Amino acid sequence: MELRTRLLIGGEWVEGSDRFPTVNPATEEVIAEVEEAGTAEVDAAVRSAREAFEDPAWRDMDPHRRSKLLWRLADLVQENLEFIAETETRDNGKPAFESAKVDLPFVVANFRYFAGWADKLSGDVIPVSGPFLNYTLREPLGVIGAIVPWNFPLNIASWKLAPALACGNAVILKPAEETSLTALLLGELALEAGFPPGIVNVIPGRGPITGQAMVEHPGIDKIAFTGSTETGRIVMRSAAESLKKVSLELGGKSPNVVFADADLAAAARGVTTGIFYGKGEVCAAGSRLFVEASIKDEFMDVLVARAAGMTVGDPTHPKTRLGAIVSKAQHERVLSYIESGISEGAVLRAGGKPASVDGRGFFIEATVFDDVKPDMKIAREEIFGPVLATLAFSDLDDAIDQANETIYGLAAGVWTRDVGKAHRDGRRENAGTGWVNTYNRYEPGSPFGGWKQAGCGRDLGERAREEYTQTKSVWVALD
Ligand code: NDP
Predict the structure, then answer these.
(1) 167 labelled catalytic
(2) CATH number of the domain at 7-250+453-477, please?
(3) Maximum Cα interatomic distance, the chain, rounded to a whole number of Å
(4) 83-111 pLDDT, tens per residue?
């Protein structure tokens, strides 16, 4: 494979209305100039997706064949895994370990999982009165606009594409401006797998231009979005005009709660990966740590030693576990949160400084704050970087009250050896995903999404079927 920089519309690689550079955040070098879709290209993508969706070649395709296409796409991602993972690492700054061993294998597994759903989209037969047969059909929605962020570029793209295609829709994918390259590679592989031209379109561009034009376009039936809560609000507002369906997977400020009776070594490991995996650029990052007051000093010593061992490194090196922050702008944003933590009086226990590899790159040390107060900015706002805010709690009720004191509700972790306490805590935490004595576990079959302002709708699992189909109720008179 080679890098692609043009737009994929209707099976053709076409020029956009402008271009923008995509930068390797570890070296600060421009990797490529990518074509940007303006309003005219968004319109062309919608037309080609609509035509492809309505073409009998796709509309009437045997569901087993759709399943095979998805399986074939998984095979092609697997065959090209090394090149795609390398590209993801260069474009995003994430360690090669994460791209090659975690993100891309998930993409493969996800396409295989949803390949399995393509021929299982059955409806129901409803018991009704009178001589009638009433049954339901699950129909595709039509054209899906998938708008995805830069933190897990191909992975989250697959969270939208795999179920959308399994359910028989056509897709227009807009990757984040910072990380367009692997989405374009996926577009190429979808063509190679045999999806009809126009069923998978990939149109890079800036959010307020390309993304906004997609959300406003009356020819798109649904926007499947992952990104910040702020942008999610704009998307929902703009989608109201054409009353298109939206699903939103948004921000988080997820709590990780450590009780005194936990396996403290395991908890320290889980808390560390919970915040530093993916450089903390993870919507479900365990960015608020709550530790039971009686063990806080002891636990913090172990945690701080672990954080200090998480040194930044060249993301292409297989041993690196803390890569480069995705962009200069995000680097500045995270550093400004660290400054705010210091100026608001939190105690900096580890990291806190920008870093570089060979004198270059947007790196930040693994950072741990202690004695954080609930009203501090670093305790309330999504930082999306390797910055942990630690608070103390006195008992179960106090832990739950503090953990739930947020506008978000994406995920929550709890560490305890007391099974009853784990379940009581889990039941009362306001979050779409709960982890007990583990953190950051995902599987294609397990639904993922937020409560409160962390979003609406669910990615992954059986629930994703609801997001990409609509129900038709059919009545047949039997007399
Ligand atoms: P955004 O939410 O702005 O980006 C997510 C996607 O939405 C991108 O593809 C973006 O395009 C697109 N987008 C931006 N504006 C619009 C719009 N008006 N209409 C339609 N689509 C749009 O995240 P940012 O990249 O700006 O990051 C800002 C902050 O958001 C981060 O610091 C982090 O805190 C948070 N964030 C949270 C994520 C999560 O999963 N919870 C993911 C990413 C960011 P483009 O990138 O090209 O502008």
Answers:
(1) no
(2) 3.40.605.10
(3) 82
(4) 999 999 999 999 999 999 999 999 999 99
CA of 211 to the centre of ligand 1 (A): 10
Q: What spacing in Å lies between the alpha carbon of 30 and ligand 1's midpoint?
A: 21
Nearest to 168 by CA among 469, 462, 449: 469
Bridge pairing between strands 387-393 and 367-370: parallel
User: Which of 375, 355, 374, 357 lies closest to 365, judged by CA?
Assistant: 355
CA-206 nearest atom, ligand 1: 47
Residue 180, sorted as left (phi over 0), alpha (psi -120 to 50) or beta, turns out to be: alpha
Ligand 1: atom nearest CA of 384 is: 34
Q: Which of 177, 249, 292, 467 is catalytic?
A: 249
Interstrand relation of 433-436 and 411-415 (parallel, antiparallel or unpaired):
parallel
- 41 in active site: no
For 421-458, the pLDDT digits (tens) are 899 888 898 999 999 999 999 999 999 999 999 999 99
CATH of domain 255-443: 3.40.309.10
CA end-to-end span of the chain, whole Å?
61
